[in-house]
Each structure stands twice: as C-alpha cells, then as structure tokens.
Amino acid sequence: MSDSAPVFRIALRGDAILTSPRFNKGTAFTIAERKAFGLTGRLPSRVNTLEEQCKRAYDQLKMRDTPIRKNSFLQSMRDQNWVLYYTLVSGHLRELVPIIYTPTEAEAISNYSHLFRRSEGMYLTFIDEATMEEDFLEQTRERKIDLIVCSDAEAILGIGDQGVGGIGISTAKSAIYTLIGGIDPSKSLSVTLDVGTDNETLLNDELYVGWPHRRIRGEAYDIFIDKFVQLVRKYFPNSLLHFEDFGVTNAQRLLQRYRHTHSVFNDDIQGTGAVTLACIMAAIGVTKSKLSEQRYIIFGAGSAGLGIATQLRDAIASTENMSMEEANKRFYLIDKYGLIKTSLEESHVREDLKPFMRPDEEWEGVPTDEGCVRLLEVVKKIKPTVLIGCSTRSGAFTEEVVKAMAEGCERPIILPLSNPSALVEVDPRNANEWTQGRALLATGSPFPPAKMPHGKDYIIAECNNALIYPGLGFGAMLSKSRRMTDTMIIAGARRLASLSPALIDPDDALLPDFGDAPEVNFEVAVAVAEQAIEEGTAGVDWDKSEVRDKARAKVWKPVYGEYAYDENGER
Ligand SMILES: NC(=O)C1=CN([C@@H]2O[C@H](COP(=O)(O)OP(=O)(O)OC[C@H]3O[C@@H](n4cnc5c(N)ncnc54)[C@H](O)[C@@H]3O)[C@@H](O)[C@H]2O)C=CC1
Ligand SMILES: CC(=O)C(=O)O
Ligand SMILES: [Mg+2]
Fold this sequence. Notes:
alpha/beta, Rossmann fold, 3 domains, five-stranded parallel β-sheet, 11% strand, binds 1,4-dihydronicotinamide adenine dinucleotide, binds magnesium ion
C-alpha cells in the first residue's frame, strides 16, 4: 500500500478549493500552492503538517462531551476535508467508529431534521421523479463512480422508518467503505430515496426536511426504485449498488429482482448473513463441531434474520454436501407471532420464510401463548446450540431463556445482534454471568468486556456487517465482478472466520477486533476477488496470484496530494 502523494491537476481556486472536501488541505496547503490557488490571503501564515492538523482536530473533538456532539463535529469535518477526517478516524478506529456509525449514528439519524446543517449525498424524492435523471447527472456528470450506497430508510438499524434521515445511514456506510475497505471516497455516492415516511413523529414535525407525505408503496414505489436502478445501470454499469436498511417487504424482493443484471448487494441480508456465518464458523472451531450439527434459533425473522438463516443454510448445504431441505431442518425461526410453523396464519408468514416453517405435529403438547409458541418453549424443547437475535426486541433473551439454553449445551453460542446498543436482546455481560462464562458471545454494537469466572476479561466480538461488507464490496469492485454471487460471499466469510482470535485461544473474541478491520477486510477482499476470478464472474483477466498486489495498489489512503493549477483540471 503505497503512501506516496498522488499528483492532481485542479481547476478550483480560492474559496472553491477551500470548500471542496476532496481537495481542501486547510492550513496544510504549501506556500507554493497558496500562491498558485489564490489562497495566500485566505489562510493564516503557518503551514501545518497533517499530523499537526490531526492533533488539533482530536483536541477539539475531545472538548465535545457527548457522543452525538462528537458525531456532529466529525460530520462537519468530513464536509470540510476528507484527508483530515479519514486520517483522524483511522487513527482512532475503535474509539470513533461507534461515533460515526452504530450506536451514535442512530441518534443522529432520528434527530436528522433538527441537527441539519448542510446537505450531504444525493436526495432523490418521489415528487421529483420526472427530473430524476437530471438530478442524478447534476452530481455525477464527469465523475467515475464505483460504489453507490442507497437507502429508502424504512428500517434504519433497529429504529424503524426515518424518512429522509436515511441519508445518514448511506453516508455512514460509505465512510466505513473508505475507512475499512479502502474505497476512494470520490468514487462513491450516498443516496437517500425519499418515498415519504409513515413515522408519525416526523410527519407532525414542522422542522422535518424530507417529503412530508405517507410512504409510497406498491407499483408506484417499484417504478420509482426501478427508475433509479436503471440510471445506475446506464451511467455506471460496472458499479456496486449497495442497498441498506430497506423494509422487510422490499429488501429481499429488490435484491432478487436486480442481482442477476447488476452487481447488487443487500447489506442487511447478505452482509449480516456473511459476518454471522464467519462468527459461527469461529465458534464451532471452539466447540469442535460442524455447522450442520447445530440447532439454530433465529429470533426476529426480518431482513437480517432471513439473511442469516439463508446464508447458514447455504453454507451447510454447499460445504457439508447436504440437501437444502435437510439443511433447513436445523433452523427454528421466531417472529412476533412466535415460532414460524405451518398453522400460523398466512398473513404472519412471508413467502420467503416458508422453507423454514416447522411442521405443527412437532409442537403438539407444547404450551402456547394464544396459539403462539414463544422463545422459552422453543429453547426448552429443541435445546439450541446457537441463539441469534435480530428482532429489535431489547431484553428478549431473559435470564430464564439463557439459563434454559445453557442447561442443554456446554458452550451456548449466543449472538444478540440488534442495533443500536439499547436494543440488544441481552447484555452480553449478563449472558456471560448467567452461563458462568460458558457462552460464546458476539453483539451487533460494541460492548465492554465481560468477566470470566477466573477473572480474565472475555472480549465481546462485534458481529456487525461492517466487519465484512467493505471487504466484500472492495473484492467485487476490484475484480470488476458483474455479479455479487453467494459463493463470493461465502469465500469472504471463510477468510474472516480464519482470522478469528478464538481459533488460537478459545476464550478470546470470536471475531477480529474492529481496530484491525482494515487489514481483515483487505483479506476478505482478496478472497472475494480470487473467487470471482475462479468462477468467471470477474471482469478482469488476471491470474488469482496477482490479486493481492492489484488490491494493494487500489487501496485509497488519506494522504494529501501534490497540486498544480490547471484550468482544464479536476473540479
Ligand atoms: N449486527 C448486524 O450486523 C446487524 C444487525 N441488524 C439489527 O437487527 C435488527 C433487525 O434488523 P432488520 O432485520 O433489518 O429489521 P426487520 O424489521 O426486517 O426485522 C425485524 C424482525 O423482528 C421481528 N420482531 C419484532 N418484534 C419481535 C418480537 N417481540 N419477537 C420476535 N420478533 C420480533 C419483526 O416482526 C421483524 O420481522 C435491527 O436491530 C438491526 O439493527 C440488522 C442488520 C445487521
Ligand atoms: C448493522 C446494520 O446494517 C443494521 O443494524 O441495520
Ligand atoms: Mg443495516
């Protein structure tokens, strides 16, 4: 990964270059550059190094006393100077990722209209559908875009419909692509698809900055989304289109509709499935068992729950030579109406959940709550080895549930994945205590370590899709893959699992530390690109042995370039 300064010919002068986050260097502009770009009178005399700027910025950040104030400060820095922002956050990844991403970003998004200072990314609004192409081109003309992250904001993290505030998740996910995946920020685009909101608080808020209208659904919604996807395909046919936090009725449907014609990725389904698969592969390395030998309860059968079930099922079927039907039988999915089983009303079971439906006969005689078989009863009956939460239901894994599970297996694998932190199904420190340190744990948002009975810290791994999606995406972009295939995703998950600290010490974290996420994701990207080449989906004609060096050369690093003024240069 070369740190040598890139050279740019730039057509911006004066305030125009100072307000360009891509090219602004602030007090780091050299004397020669100040003269060439008309900046001498616009900057104080001293020229700072990037290191000095970072020190000053970090001191200023520390003066902000709450996570949300730190989040606003960092957002404003990102609007001003990308190199400084990404250098600062990269230097303090473990401390600052929770500020720019979950859990703090959830608070920023839910207060979006009140915290609003300036626009970021692209806002495509339903009422402006007629001019969508012009609006799209206004921001993308003459740009080379490799990555588009979009959200319609119907299911942001675990906090539901956030309307136009969804731009916050698109920009946060894009920033993580850069920080962890090494994607050049000038080649990514963050989009909110504002199709209205059903969030009453937002609809009644006079300061709401989005389109104050109920959410558009049905055919009109599909036409709007399709228009956007076709623009992406027309102008950036080789880009990766990342879908984030769509509602459960649209997420899987849109993925299936577009994944065969473009490189499309749904993070909540595929990214979450992949990171959870890696986490469980690491956990069964500790318990010395196979994926197919587990009994899985997935609590919360929405986008993430279905994505996890599907990813695990596919991995069992493909790596352990088992039929899909047989592999499906390892899973027990639970949603609001209890266990997904055959006699549940049709309206309570989405079509895509049907392969995982349990037969009624299996549950005869099991106590129900108005006909619903609840989590505790399922745990008691099937004695799960793996319990995964993606329900947004804080505290659902009660002491009784966790203890009942621990009675039935030596090392229960418990992954309460709901975000943000306040929605976690069980505080991992409680789960650790209730199982006398036997549980193998990971969460969706960061948590402090738990204590093992012998006094050692047990590090709670962060099983968040951000630990893998930047690498999956980078691997697909690097190999110019025409599709993001399931086998590419499994290759990335395997590589991540192989880096688990628990494989060396069973009492260590199930997944690598977030502080190591850039190196880890680099490995994931290499695995994905190698797989794309092997299976023929790659658009490059490299040999697999070349991938690592090609990837190194492509990683974007936050370093100031050397600038020369050129009226025909970049803007
Ligand atoms: N750790 C990670 O990487 C990820 C975590 N998540 C988290 O998972 C949660 C769910 O996200 P999505 O699947 O995108 O949302 P979703 O809305 O598609 O799914 C949530 C599901 O939970 C169900 N549910 C709600 N209350 C329940 C209850 N009392 N009992 C059982 N099920 C219940 C809902 O009916 C729905 O099917 C969120 O908190 C989200 O932040 C999502 C994606 C990635
Ligand atoms: C992590 C993530 O994608 C979510 O919570 O929705
Ligand atoms: Mg998400």
